[in-house]
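User: Predict structure, ligand 2-deoxy-2-amino glucitol-6-phosphate.
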Amino acid sequence: MCGIVGFIGNKNAKDVVLNGLTRLEYRGYDSAGLSLFNSRYQTFDVYKDEGRVQKLVDSTKNAAFSNIGIGHTRWATHGRVNKENSHPHYSQTRRFIIVHNGVIENYQQLKDQYLRNTILTSETDTEVIAQLIETFSQTLSVEIAITTTLKLLHGSYALLVLDSNDPEKIYAAKYKSPLIVGQGVDGITVASDLMALIGYSTDYHALDDKTFLVARKEGIRLFDLNNESLDLHFKPIELDDQDTTKGEYAHYMMKEIHEQPSVLRRIVTNYYEKEKSLIKSEILESIKSSDRLYILAAGTSMHAGLIGKQLIEKMTSIPVEVHIASEFAYQKPLLSKNPMFILVTQSGETADLRACLVLINQHHYKSLTITNVPTSTLAREATYFLELYAGPEIAVASTKAYVAQVAVLSLIAHELSNQSIDIRKELSIAATSIENFLSSEEILPLVREYLTRRNCFFIGRGLDYHVSLEAALKLKEISYIQTEGFAAGELKHGTIALIEEGTPVIALISDPKINNNTRSNLKEVQARGAKTFRIVMESCKQDGDEVILENVHPLLTPLVMVVPTQLLAYYAALERSYDIDKPRNLAKSVTVE
Ligand code: AGP
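Assistant: Predicted complex:
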C-alpha cells in the first residue's frame, strides 16, 4: 500500500526512481510523485499529480540531471485523490521533502499540539511529519529532529526525507511498513520492496522497525531511535528482470495464471529431496504438540486457509480454526490451551495480520508464516516461516499465490498425517491437469454468454464451497460484477430471493458424493430463471457440462477448480476494458489496518 523509492549515487536519480515506482505501482496507483534536486536554484523540485506513474514519466521528461531523488506511488488513506494530497510533501519553508507509506493515527493530535501556527497544504497525515521535522530542526540537528518526530508518531510508517540544506543525504526510517536499502556500484536505493532494486543494487538490507538510516553516496549509516549506531546485514538480491515482466502476455494476471503449473512443480522441488520432506522437523513438531491450529489471513489468502483447514482436519486429527485477520486482532476468540498460529499471506506485509502477530508474540505463542516474500515482516517476526516459491506476483488479483498457499498447506497436512498419499506425484498430476486445461480453455465464449449482468453467484459444496468464495472475490475485484460465493445447499435459505430471470449461477462440482446434491440446487435456481453453467471434475461429468477438468486427488481439487474461475474473472474484466492488473480502489500489499 503505497510504494516509495529513493536513490543517491552516480546515476540520474529520476531514472532509478521512476523505474522503481513503475515496478512498485501495484502497491497503489491513485497518484505518483517525485522530488529531484535542482542545482541551479539549490532546492528540491517536486513533480506530482493524481494518476499513474506514466503521467509522471511524461511530466518529468525535461527535468535536469539530479543524483538524488525520492518518489512515491499512492493508495489514498487520508485525503482525497488529488494533486495536493499526492506525495512528496514539503515542510512549510520547503526545506524538508518527504514521502511516506503508512498511517499516522495521532496526526490530528500532533497537529493541535505542535503545529498550531503552521499552514498545512494537504489533507494528509504525512504532511504533519514534514512539518514536525522542520519545527524540531529549528533547535535540534536534523538527525535528532527526525528521531524526535519519529518517537511521537503512532501508527505505521516507512518514510524518506530530503533536506534542501544538505542535498547529499536521504534519511529513511521504518515502523511496521516495509523498507529495504540496496547497494550497487552506482549508488544506494531505498524502497518499499526488492523489486524496485532490480538492476540497481546487488545486495540489500531489510530495515527493522524503529531503525533509521542516513544514505550518502559514500555509504549508509544505520541507527536506532536513540541515535545509537547499528550494523547493517546485507544479503544478495536473487530476483531478476524476467521475474517482473509480462513476457508474452498482455497482463500480469494472465501470465501468473499460466505460471501455476510451474509453481506447483517448484514447490515439490523445493520441499522434497527425493521422498524426504524438507519442511523443518521443529515446525512439524510444534504443530503436532499444539492442541489446535489457528489459521489467520485476509482475502484470497483466507480462502486458501479455509482449504488448508479442510486438508489438515481430513488428513490429521488436529482441529483447525480459520479467522479473518482484521477480526481476530481485536476480537480474539477463546483460545485452546496450547494453540499454534499459521499466518497465510502472499505479501507478508498485511497490516491486519501484523496486528495479530504482535498479539501472538506478546503471549509467546508459536507461529508459522506461509508467505511468498521471505524478507517480509511477517516472515521475520513469526517463529517459523515457509516460502511459497510462487515468484513475484504483480497483478493485484492473486492467482498463483493462492494455488501455492493451498499446495504448501497440503504439504503440511501430508507431513502431519499417516495417510500414504504420494503427495509429490499428486501435485504433479494437478500441475498437468491445470496445464492441459489452460492449453485448450474456452472460457471467453462463456463470459460473453453468461456474465452479462451486474450480479453473479458461484455455488459449491465442501471444498468447492470454499473455492466458490475465492471465485467470487476474483470476479468482483476485477470485473466489478457483484458476486457471491455460496454453499450450494444454503442458497434456498434466503439468498435465492435474489435470483431472477437471467441471473448467472455457476456451479463448481468436484466431489462425486455430493454431485447430485449440487445439481439439485442448480435446478432450483434454474426454475427461477437463473442462467447456469457447470465447472466439473471429470469424475462428476454429465452430459452438457460446460467446463470439464482432468481428475486429480480428491483433496487437491481446489488447485484445479479455481483456475477456470480465475479466467472467468480475467475475461469478464477484459470484455469491459477494465484495468485488469490494477483494479480500482485496490492495492497489492495492504499495509494499513
Ligand atoms: C485478492 O486477489 C487480493 N489480492 C487480496 O484479497 C489479498 O489476498 C489480501 O489482501 C491478503 O494479502 P496477503 O496475502 O498479501 O496477506
